[in-house]
Amino acid sequence: MLNDSDSIHQPGEDLREYLRSRENRSLYRYRLTLESPQAPRVTVSGREYLAFCSNDYLGLANHPELIAAVCEGARQYGVGAGASHLVSGHSRAHHLLEEALASFLRYPRALLFSTGYMANTGVVTALSGRGDAIFADKLNHASLNDAALLSHARLSRYPHLDLAVLERQLAASRARRKLVVSDAVFSMDGDIVPLPSLLELCERYNAWLLLDDAHGFGVLGDQGRGSLAHFNISSPRIIYMGTLGKAAGVFGAFVAAQEKIIEMLIQCARSYIYTTATPPFLSHALLKSLELIAGGAWRREKLARLTKLLKQECRSLPWKLLPSDTPIQPLVMGENAKVLRVSEALRQKGILVTAIRPPTVPEGTARLRITLSSSHDTEDVMELGAALREIDRDME
Questions:
Q1: Sign, CA torsion 119/121/126/127
Q2: Cα(282)–Cα(61) distance, rounded to whole angstroms?
């Protein structure tokens, strides 16, 4: 029988200590449980909140035409895919969506993945290995960082958007294959990569460019075709990854690229080969989503107006609103405890805005990540601005 002095050796005690330390540093995370669809106003624990924390930028997650398309797709294709794409899970619905995505983005081919995380992992590990080199922006999404580590290629990270450092790294590399990986729209800062300059470096040093446009697809560029259209750029060396659960309003991800890249992924991307295909009715619904994205210029125009209004509403606040022309508007407060207090104060006023803390963002840059949707109204943004100003006065 153990005495008190042995209790530290009980199974899981080290985990409890770790969790307590996170709580003491204001880093503990909790989940909200929504009782309603994604929308500007959501229900949590029976109370309605005005929400600014979803990536449903175009307000399509609860769109009636998508709901109808899901029902139609389920009647036509059933519910589950039943197998991986390379066994018997590749449905006509998947195939039609891949063709539609390729056409929409003006790429030779596209390939569906279950998530953006799996898409990035699949591309990086299929195209890079020992003897290769990966170059990554320090503020890239975690999936790109994890994929680089899994690949066993040499990883070089450069300061955020510092292309001068990237050029020195590329020039010094003698790797057989070079892969530059970058967010197109950075998920926590909302800024956009200077794509023309980044591509020019890749061309000069013969590197592939994997562009993660999870937060640009549907939002930026003509017809919502993303960051490439935003800059009016096309290049066979760009491997384009987009997600389908943010602006597209449904679920999943895809990679658009040249024929040889897509074939390489089908043969070698483990996160594609060894997983069950997504339910085909989702792909059927996403065909309708693409139509709504392409024809939804008014949604993107409204987002731009709401973004401008939010910046005006935040001008008098002591906290720094990072420069972003996307629906991601980060309000940096620095201290973990402070951002939690402000987030909780907003919640008490019936407004949900998530507090983002390390390791999601660098130490000392804890923030409110305010995300806008075209489903928000002018009054919603003004309500948030007034609440933030009142909280600031109360904290003085």
A1: positive
A2: 12
Q: Give the three-class secondary structure for 271.
A: helix
Read off the amino acid at residue 243. T
Joined together, the tokens standing for residue 112 give 């569906």
Judge whether 371 and 353 are in contact, CB under 8 Å. no
CA 188/CA 199 separation, integer angstroms: 23
List the one residue out of 63, 66, 59, 32 whose CA is nearest residue 306. Answer: 59
All domains in the chain, ordered by first residue: 26-58+297-395 (3.90.1150.10), 64-294 (3.40.640.10)
Please tell me the distance from the alpha carbon of residue 2 to that of residue 299, in angstroms, as a whole number: 64
Per-residue pLDDT of the chain (396 residues; tens, 9 = 90+): 445 555 556 778 889 899 999 888 888 888 889 999 999 999 999 999 999 999 999 999 999 999 999 999 999 999 999 999 999 999 999 999 999 999 999 999 999 999 999 999 999 999 999 999 999 999 999 999 999 999 999 999 999 999 999 999 999 999 999 999 999 999 999 999 999 999 999 999 999 999 999 999 999 999 999 999 999 999 999 999 999 999 999 999 999 999 999 999 999 999 999 999 999 999 999 999 999 999 999 999 999 999 999 999 999 999 999 999 999 999 999 999 999 999 999 999 999 999 999 999 999 999 999 999 999 999 999 999 999 999 999 887
Q: How far apart are the first and last CA of the chain?
A: 55
Q: Collect contacts of 204-207 with beta carbons under 8 A, ≥24 apart.
A: 204/170, 205/167, 205/170, 205/171, 205/173, 205/178, 206/178, 207/135, 207/170, 207/178, 207/179, 207/180, 207/237
Give the other-Cβ count within 10 Å of 200's Cβ. 14
- Distance, CA of 28 to CA of 127 (rounded, Å): 36
Distance CA 181, CA 257 (A): 14
